[in-house]
Amino acid sequence: MRTMMKVSSRPVLLLFLFILVVAGVLVGFGVPLVSSEGMILRARLVEGELPIGPEDAAWAKVSPMTLPLSGQIITRPVWPEPSAHALTVRSLHNGAEIAFLLEWQDNTKNDRLTPGTFRDGVAIGLPLGDAPSFFCMGQLDHYINIWHWKADWQSDIDRRAAKASEKARDGVRTFEVIPRRVSSVEDLIGGGFSTLTTKEKQGRVQGQAAWKDGVWHVVMRRPLVSEEQENEAKLIPGRVQTVSFAVWNGENKERNGQKAVAPWFQLIIDPVSKL
Asked: What is the pTM of this model?
């Protein structure tokens, strides 16, 4: 009897050791280990105004959720080895607006788009309607609303604000051609690869960001109530829905489909009646 127990326990021990080795390798490469139970992102209900920027102390009161990122390998050009391996997400809403704080490691700040250089960016994907759709770009008849924050757009907004402050303080302003942006976030609709369309009305989704010590901190926010029934994701308190994410590192020449992705996760927006 003792011999039989010893033989049967050996495969279990080997499997356990294999799991430990794999876990160590993943952690060594910066890939977070998560459980299936923890893959629900909660938009916590709070009173008052939502934080506009990432430095707001309100974010420290929200439990972060770390999502593993992988390379986009569904369509060409595939990108199996992105530089970002994890994305930390927090979310708040006040019954009128919802906000997300997205943070990831990026040792270089790429906030200018010029020939041969590329920008940093992050995106949130939300399906239009209740039917499931492909997490990257949606699919025909199953569209996705994408909020794409762009580091160079943020730089344009920040530099314009600095110029306005400079003029108000000194009465003069140095000349620089800076594009006018209504937001650092582009509001898009996707219905499959190569179908990405910029929505006619922009500015509903606002962004604010800061890069510090090799980490991007990006806030995106939007009113909960949808203005467009067909072209804007519905965000309904009390309902469980899905959300996906993507990250681009300009230094790593990532752009378009060359990116790190986090496929559908569950998003639950706290019901308003909780207050």
From this structure: 0.81
